[in-house]
TrEMBL record:
It holds the Pfam family NUDIX. This is NUDIX domain-containing protein. Belongs to the Nudix hydrolase family. The keyword Ligase does not apply.
Length: 221
């Protein structure tokens, strides 16, 4: 069964002129030459419409809950620190939309590089301000995000930025949820199992589905 769907929040964003929502309801209106040239992961067009290279998602036409036709490039900050007892911690935010606990991150603005976007989003969502020029970090390859809000015509790709704050912390840096984050917390992360157990037992929460594979992969490196 072919399903067509665009969430009301996207239609509201279009009506409000939100920059994250393409105003056109017809993806054939988009300049796909430019968008495909800028894409982090190549994707095909069929009859002038973008096709998710990792689909199907269950929604063939429309944008589901995402506003940007085709690939929306994001950046996520993977911030870790080790305390004086040798325990590794990962900085996570509780999303304000109820989708769970996630890495700080968000859209890469036009003309912005992913590293700058990750550091910017980190500061905006957690209050932790770091200088990309002096803070050791690793830029990982772009990867598809299995976001539950995606469709076959609108999807997310992220560039993860690893930020290691080092070892021997008596007190971890202070953080507080801001912007799109309900709250921000340091979570025990020696293993992925430790992290999920801490989220469930202490916060009654779960990892944002789109970030489960990414976080699990990073914690096993």
């Amino acid at each position: 069964m072919t399903r067509t769907y665009t969430h009301p929040s996207v239609l509201d964003g279009i009506a409000a002129g939100a920059p994250w929502a393409d105003p056109t309801m017809d993806p054939a209106d988009i300049d796909w030459t430019a968008r495909r040239a800028a894409a982090a992961i190549p994707f095909p067009l069929v009859d002038g419409r973008p096709v998710n290279p990792y689909g199907p998602t269950g929604i063939r036409y429309g944008r589901n809950e995402l506003g940007h036709w085709g690939e929306q490039q994001c950046a996520d900050a993977i911030v870790t620190a080790v305390d004086t007892e040798g325990t590794r911690w990962l900085l996570l935010i509780e999303r304000g939309d109820g989708h769970g606990w996630a890495l700080p991150g968000g859209y890469v603005d036009p003309g912005e590089n992913p590293t700058a976007a990750a550091f910017r989003e980190l500061a905006e969502e957690t209050g932790l301000t770091l200088d990309a020029a002096t803070t050791p970090h690793t830029r990982y390859p772009a990867r598809y995000v299995p976001d539950p809000r995606a469709s076959d015509e609108a999807w997310m790709v992220t560039v993860p930025i690893g930020i290691d704050l080092g070892t021997g912390h008596y007190l971890l840096p202070w953080v507080e949820g801001n912007d799109d984050a309900h709250r921000a917390e340091w979570i025990v992360a020696d293993t992925y199992h430790d992290l999920t157990a801490e989220l469930t037992g202490t916060y009654g929460g779960h990892v944002f589905p789109a970030h489960r594979d990414l976080i699990a992969d990073i914690l096993t490196d």
